[in-house]
Amino acid sequence: MEFQEYLKSKKIDAEAFRKGDVLRYQEWSTLFETMHPESFTGHKKFLINEIRRRYLLKED
Known about the structure:
Blueprint: H1 3-9, H2 14-20, H3 22-34, H4 37-54
Helix pairs in contact: 2-3
């Protein structure tokens, strides 16, 4: 799974996140490559919720 796909599955707008918080996006992207998606979710659970509220993916 790609990091952008993961963000979409968590209802996070990857492009808005990348532009709005460059350092965190890069850090998470690099970390995601080294972990299983479920482990990443467990590790960043509460932060993911914060990012989702800030960069919510708009539904079609």
